[in-house]
């Protein structure tokens, strides 16, 4: 694995001075041995002899005893975790005028020139007055980093970024590109060296003038840094002692010859010599540390190499730790994902178990139905079996975002209207495209009832209103506040609209797009959820009661008592009155005698809707239930001839047209059935 890139290490001279002094204080045995050898006449003693004089218990002994002599000294510092020691070479130790001159130039350049660039304005005095064309119209000075803006003019970059509009054409300023041609022209202008300038007496800030005692040279602006970095008039400091007075570069060499503060290059090891240039050279020949210079230099090199290696290892360790942290995060994420997948798996397993139980229940219902049919066949009362009368699901309309509660067919245009809990009415083409033509929006509550009279569609909702829609344009034309409670059912007859709600039926005269309240039928004991108009009579269902009203005078002419709770649905055939109840039952009365002739059983949930398809040969009644099934009943012998199971929720609404049956359910779909 490739190790991370090492970070820059500290300056070796800075390391040596701080660390060698630390190790010198920590190792008294080493210090004593070196001083003894230095004081003796045998100045050529080897480093092995010096190290051997150290006591075994000192920091020189221990785990590094098998190393070479130089490695032992190296290991001594490593045991104490000391940074590498840097020993000055011969070229560094002799503080000659030339070396001090060079070193002082570098240090002062990095210290003072950068400081001036950051904090003080750069003196800029031109040898000749520059052309006005080379001046920025915003700051009225020579361009600094000229750029071209979107308006086509040239300004300083800082001016363009800090100003909002161009002073020439008042356009918004946006930098496009650097103006290299103008920058090159400005770079060719001649200026005075900054060390030949001084602040002007003018009250204008940052103004400079030529200093007759400063640098006399004029240079190109583009070559300014090259000249000023080596200018003889550049101020410098004495490298020996910062308390020496400031000097010019041209005077540094003469000062160094006379300076009385030159230190021995081995002062960091304990040498206390301070003198001038003449005494420095004499002292260097007699300095006790000079004999160890080569050894200390080699040791410094080894320490430096080992520190580089240690730094690389530290970064490798940091890199590995970061990788380990990322792997830990990935493992945690994988564990969370695994837990989520287990949760989804458990949920799917529970759903499959529920579906399996539902399937078994449906299969049990089918078996019961088959047993019932077989019993009827054996009794000889079923009649002949006609395979052409088997109803099959031919398609499904999908689009609602909630349960479908009502259906209504406009036979002229083969349109089907469906009302849903999503507060919308969808218009379906049942002849050609079989797609939703439009979604009607206007109600603030569940759409519970639909009814058609002429070319108008009437919709009743849980928001207690009735909305009138034009079927030709599919636009809302009127809204009536009909009841104080949800409008549960609607039916029209004799140019009147009947609406059912809690303990009330309202009769409305249809006048164009208006509804005029004609009468309110009372005496009802519960919610009116079912209304059917047939010939001259209106049939209404409430709690265990069916009332028959004469539409001509709006009077109640007959009351049928039922069982099984509230009446949820009513259907009228040529010979029978049929109602579905809350407690799974379907009651049948003779339409002439008003006597109950049969109670049909088979559903295991509330019978929400009833529909009739009549032919000259036979009459069939379709029932929709909470148990998700539809049943087909033959009114000739009052038996169930077919059970339709395709919905995934309670079947709540039915409508018939051209021999087709439409069913709406809580699963938000509408299915089409034909035989």
What is the CA-CA span between the terminal residues? Answer: 74 Å
- Percentage of residues assigned to helices: 25-40%
Average pLDDT number? 81
Count of alpha/pi helices: 12
Structural class: alpha+beta
* Radius of gyration from CA coordinates: 53 Å
Low-confidence stretches: 1-22, 40-119, 380-388
Q: Major beta sheet, specifics?
A: 6 strands, antiparallel
| Annotation, overall tally of beta strands | 37
What shape does the CA trace take? Answer: elongated
Strand order of the largest sheet: 25-26-27-28-29-30
Strand content: 25-35%
If you had to describe this structure to a student in words, what would you say it looks like?
This protein is an alpha+beta fold and 675 residues long. Helices cover 29% and strands 32% of the residues. The chain is built from twelve helices and 37 strands. The strands form eleven sheets. A six-stranded antiparallel β-sheet has the order 25-26-27-28-29-30, with no helix packed on it. A four-stranded antiparallel β-sheet has the order 12-37-36-35, with no helix packed on it. It has a four-stranded antiparallel β-sheet with strand order 13-14-15-16, with no helix packed on it. A hairpin with a 3-residue loop joins strand 18 (456-461) and strand 19 (465-470). Helix 4 crosses helix 12 and helix 6 (97-119) crosses helix 10. The longest helix has 87 residues, at 293-379. The radius of gyration is 53 Å and the shape is elongated. It starts with 11 loop residues before the first helix and ends with a strand. The model is unreliable at 1-22, 40-119 and 380-388 (pLDDT under 50).
């Amino acid at each position: 694995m490739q190790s991370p890139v090492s970070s820059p290490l500290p300056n070796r001279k800075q390391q040596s001075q701080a660390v060698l002094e630390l190790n010198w204080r920590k190792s008294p045995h080493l210090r004593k041995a070196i001083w003894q050898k230095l004081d003796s006449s045998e100045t050529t003693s080897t480093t092995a002899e010096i190290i051997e004089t150290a006591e075994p218990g000192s920091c020189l002994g221990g785990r590094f005893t098998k190393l070479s002599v130089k490695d032992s000294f190296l290991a001594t510092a490593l045991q104490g975790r000391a940074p590498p020691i840097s020993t000055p070479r011969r070229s560094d130790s002799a503080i000659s005028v030339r070396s001090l001159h060079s070193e002082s130039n570098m240090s002062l350049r990095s210290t003072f020139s950068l400081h001036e660039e950051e904090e003080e304005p750069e003196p800029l005095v031109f040898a000749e007055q520059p052309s006005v064309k080379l001046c920025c119209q915003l700051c009225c000075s020579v361009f600094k980093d000229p750029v071209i803006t979107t308006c086509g003019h040239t300004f300083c970059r800082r001016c363009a970024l800090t100003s909002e509009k161009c002073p020439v054409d008042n356009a918004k300023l946006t930098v496009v590109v650097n103006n290299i041609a103008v920058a090159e022209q400005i770079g060719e202008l001649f200026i005075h060296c900054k060390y030949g300038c001084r602040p002007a007496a003018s009250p204008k800030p940052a103004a400079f003038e030529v200093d007759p005692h400063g640098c006399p040279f004029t240079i190109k602006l583009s070559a300014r840094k090259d000249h000023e970095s080596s200018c003889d008039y550049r101020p410098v400091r004495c490298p020996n002692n910062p308390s020496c007075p400031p000097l010019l570069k041209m005077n540094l060499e003469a000062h160094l010859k006379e300076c009385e503060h030159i230190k021995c290059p081995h002062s960091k090891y304990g040498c206390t010599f301070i003198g001038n240039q003449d005494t420095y050279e004499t002292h260097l020949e007699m300095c006790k540390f000079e004999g160890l210079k080569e050894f200390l230099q080699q040791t410094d090199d080894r320490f430096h190499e080992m520190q580089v290696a240690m730094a690389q290892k530290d970064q490798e360790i940091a890199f590995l730790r970061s990788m380990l942290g990322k792997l830990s995060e990935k493992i945690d994420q994988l564990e969370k994902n695994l837990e989520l997948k287990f949760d989804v798996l458990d949920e799917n397993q529970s759903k499959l178990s529920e579906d399996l139980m539902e399937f078994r229940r449906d299969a049990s219902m089918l078996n019961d139905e088959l047993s019932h049919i077989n019993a009827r066949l054996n009794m000889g009362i079923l009649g002949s079996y006609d395979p052409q009368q088997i109803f099959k699901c031919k398609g499904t309309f999908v689009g609602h975002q909630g349960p479908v509660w009502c259906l209504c067919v406009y036979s002229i245009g083969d349109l089907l209207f469906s009302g849903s809990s999503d507060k919308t009415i969808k218009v379906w083409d049942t002849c050609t495209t079989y797609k939703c033509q439009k979604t009607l929006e206007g109600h603030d509550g569940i759409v519970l009832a639909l009814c058609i009279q002429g070319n108008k569609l009437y919709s009743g909702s849980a928001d207690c209103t009735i909305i009138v829609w034009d079927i030709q344009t599919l636009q809302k034309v009127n809204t009536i506040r009909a009841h104080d409670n949800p409008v549960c059912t609607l039916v029209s007859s004799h140019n009147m609209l009947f609406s059912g709600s809690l303990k009330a039926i309202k009769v409305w005269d249809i006048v164009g797009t208006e509804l005029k309240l004609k009468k309110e039928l009372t005496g009802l004991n519960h919610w009116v959820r079912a209304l059917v108009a047939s010939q001259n009579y209106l049939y209404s269902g409430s709690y265990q009661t069916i009332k028959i009203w004469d539409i001509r005078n709006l009077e109640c002419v007959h009351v049928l008592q039922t069982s099984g709770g509230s009446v949820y649905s009513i259907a009228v055939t040529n010979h029978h009155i049929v109602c579905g109840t809350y407690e799974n039952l379907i009651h049948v009365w003779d339409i002439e005698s008003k006597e109950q002739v049969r109670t049909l059983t088979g559903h295991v949930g509330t019978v929400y809707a009833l529909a009739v398809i009549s032919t000259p040969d036979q009459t069939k009644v379709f029932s929709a239930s909470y148990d998700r099934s539809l049943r087909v009943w033959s009114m000739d012998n009052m038996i169930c001839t077919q059970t339709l199971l395709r919905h995934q929720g309670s079947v709540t609404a039915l409508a018939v047209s051209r021999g087709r049956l439409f069913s709406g359910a809580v699963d938000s779909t509408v299915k089409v059935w034909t035989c």
